[in-house]
Amino acid sequence: MAKEEISMSGAAPAPAVPKSKEPGVGFAEVAKEVNNVERAVKVLEDRVYNVREKEKINSENVLETNKKIFSEIRVINSELLESKRDIEDIKTKLRLIINDLKTAARKEDIDLVKKYLELWEPVSFITRNEAEKIINSLIEDKLREKGL
Question: Residue 16: exposed, middle, or buried by beta-carbon count in 10 A (0-12, 13-18, 19+)?
Fold first, then answer.
């Protein structure tokens, strides 16, 4: 049974290259294996680089999108606040109009006053000055009749 060792990083060590009796054969296999590992590492490094570039671009896009969204939210909040103020102004004006309408005469009241005016015919009434003139004239006529 072969004894496996675990390195400090927690990974198993690379498998041991079988020792051959010919000195040149083992070196060629090791060199070939090193080249294969080196190519695999380069491919992985390229992939990691590409992933990091994509992550960087995505991060920049997210930041730019967040800025746009926050800017739009500020505009919407500002418009909402202005709309709330406008609504409050409209409510205040409606309350004033309602209070004015409560104190205004109703149509029935105006119709009633109109009927009384037609019945009494105030145009045919005389003024105080006219009444005083008529009374004074009658008094003068009576006094002349009596000779005074």
Answer: exposed
